[in-house]
Amino acid sequence: MKFIDQTVIQVIAGNGGNGCVNFRREKYVPKGGPDGGDGGNGGNIWIESNNNLNTLIDFRFKKVFQAEHGSNGLGKNCSGKKGNDIRIYVPIGTKIINYQTRELIDDLIEDKQQILIAKGGWHGLGNTRFKSSTNRTPRQKTLGSIGEKRHIQLELLLIADVGTLGMPNAGKSTLVKNISGAKTKVSDYPFTTLNPILGSVKIKDKKFIIADIPGIIKGASQGTGLGIHFLKHLERCKILLHIVDLCPTDYSNPIENIKTVLYELKKYSEKLYNKPRFLILNKIDLIPTLKINKFIKTIKNNLNIQEPYYLISSLQKIGTKKLCSDILYFLKK
């Protein structure tokens, strides 16, 4: 399924039905009075979050949502039928934004959370409403009001406790797959991950949600690669895992790779850059311990990185249990 995390739609609520002008005309009923009924209210449009959805692909082709109009009033004081409401379902984590003003209308972060996004028009009044002791044959009525019409932008931000970031092929997907069982695609070439994927990590009776996003490369903040487009999905995360490949297949320098990711992250968002991070040194099964220690010393001397670091092999599951326990402890704090 194609992952779509942003779209613009138009919602049009139904118009209210008009009131009716009518008088009783029945045999053996002298001097029949007014009996024009009210119109029906126009249908509303609701937006509701649904836990079973994870993309906005349903809005790829359907862009306009029109609720039903209320029916006009009838004689014998019969009110018109109310227009049927429309309920639009979106994934949890969807932001609703006014397309014209860019104002945030609502942020649906819980299952079955709903908002009335476009209110249907109010019904018109029939002539029965206007009868009085001085106006016995009223011919007044009111028209139903127009339903609301809005252009709104839907923007999906995945809800996860933990987010991964790093260069392509650093082992992010392998880690997420092995600790959570998520169905991530794993291979030995860059940009295996094309869309964000969520996984659930369970430790005894506790759990946390981890997000895997495409890798970040040099120039990402200018639009190069895929990662910068999906960095917004880390905004709700409480902690980030910066995963570093200690033995990159392209023979790049791991120290330079760390600098690149941090530079692109900071250029994209200071808020995201300042989130708590763990430095994850991956693929320790491929290099000797002496070289690892030298690498750690270089990091401490040259990068001034203060965050905790972990030595793991996501493929061999070395150190991943301790990492998950520490993540859970951090989240509990």
Automatic annotation (TrEMBL):
GTP binds at residues 166-173, 191-195, 212-215, 282-285, 313-315. Mg(2+) binds at S173, T193. Residues 160-332 form the OBG-type G domain. Its EC number is 3.6.5.-. It comes from the Bacteria. PROSITE patterns: G_OBG, GTP1_OBG, OBG. GO terms for molecular function: GTP binding; GTPase activity; magnesium ion binding; ribosome binding. InterPro entries: G_OBG, GTP-bd, GTP-bd_Obg/CgtA, GTP1-OBG_CS, GTP1_OBG_dom, GTP1_OBG_dom_sf, OBG_GTPase, P-loop_NTPase. One of its GO terms (cellular component) is cytoplasm. Coiled coil: none annotated. An essential GTPase which binds GTP, GDP and possibly (p)ppGpp with moderate affinity, with high nucleotide exchange rates and a fairly low GTP hydrolysis rate. Plays a role in control of the cell cycle, stress response, ribosome biogenesis and in those bacteria that undergo differentiation, in morphogenesis control. Monomer. Belongs to the TRAFAC class OBG-HflX-like GTPase superfamily. OBG GTPase family. This is GTPase Obg. It comes from Buchnera aphidicola (Aphis helianthi). The gene is cgtA.
